[in-house]
Amino acid sequence: MDTLKDKTLFCSWSGGKDACLALYRSLKNGGRAEALLTMMVEDGERSRSHGLSRTVINAQSAALNISSIVRPTSWDNYEQIFLSTLKDLKAKNFECGVFGDIDLEDHLKWVENICASAGLQAYEPLWQTPRRALLDEFLELGFTATIIAVKQDLLSQKFLGRTLDRDVIAELENAGVDASGEEGEYHTVVTDGPIFSKSVKIAKKGIVIKNGYCFLDVAVS
């Protein structure tokens, strides 16, 4: 898709850096972002991907001035609910879904197929951009992100709560992981940047260990 000019879009929203940069690029390419779509765990209180509370997702939505749509799911019904939600968006005249994939082919195919099934176009503005170049762009644009999850067998808990900057990126690389975290090595929450109307203030509440990850539980402060 060469241009998003005047297309109504939703962004698949994890709350992290890649989704945020994809949203930024989409807006710069003329898209009209009308919704952030976040898939939640069964009780609807935390995001399935990053473990972010609904209040944090809502605070990001308010700061971005874009409506939030959340859907509780299990892994068993995830695809069914995702597709149903996309069909609802299509019925409301949405034209396009924005995703923050970088270079994982399997997920790209899944995104393209499920969007096509709903009659929507899939837009992947980060696709095949070198991972490190995306990190550099994210920082140079002035976004602020905090590490809120690390894969237990790859990274120490010492990274939790750290602001993503060049020093932290160097430490991640020295720890032997790809600094972009595209393979799920770590996750972030974005709290400020050029498309935010205000900063999202968060407070650290504690650490939760689940499914091979250490999560930093954060709340809006």
Q: Within the CATH hierarchy, at the fold level, what is the topology of the largest domain?
A: Rossmann fold
Which structural class do the helices and strands define? alpha/beta
Distance between termini?
39 Å
* Series of secondary-structure elements, N-terminal to C-terminal: EHEHEHEHEHEHEEE
Number of domains: 2
Can you offer a commentary on this structure?
By secondary structure, the chain is α/β, with parallel strands linked by helices. It folds into two domains: 8-123, 3-Layer(aba) Sandwich (Rossmann fold); 135-220, putative n-type atp pyrophosphatase, domain 2 (Alpha-Beta Complex), CATH 3.90.1490. The chain is 31% helix and 26% strand. It is built from six helices and nine strands, in the order βαβαβαβαβαβαβββ. The chain has helices spanning 17-28, 54-64, 78-91, 105-117, 131-140, 166-174, and strands spanning 8-12, 32-40, 67-72, 96-98, 121-123, 144-151, 186-192, 202-210, 213-220. The strands form two sheets. The chain has a five-stranded parallel sheet with strand order 3-2-1-4-5, with helices on both faces. Strands 7-6-9-8 form a four-stranded antiparallel sheet, covered by helices on one side. Strand 2 (32-40), helix 2 and strand 3 (67-72) form a beta-alpha-beta unit. It is globular and about 45 Å long. The model has no long low-confidence stretch (mean pLDDT 96).
Summarize this structure briefly.
With 221 residues, the chain is α/β, with parallel strands linked by helices.
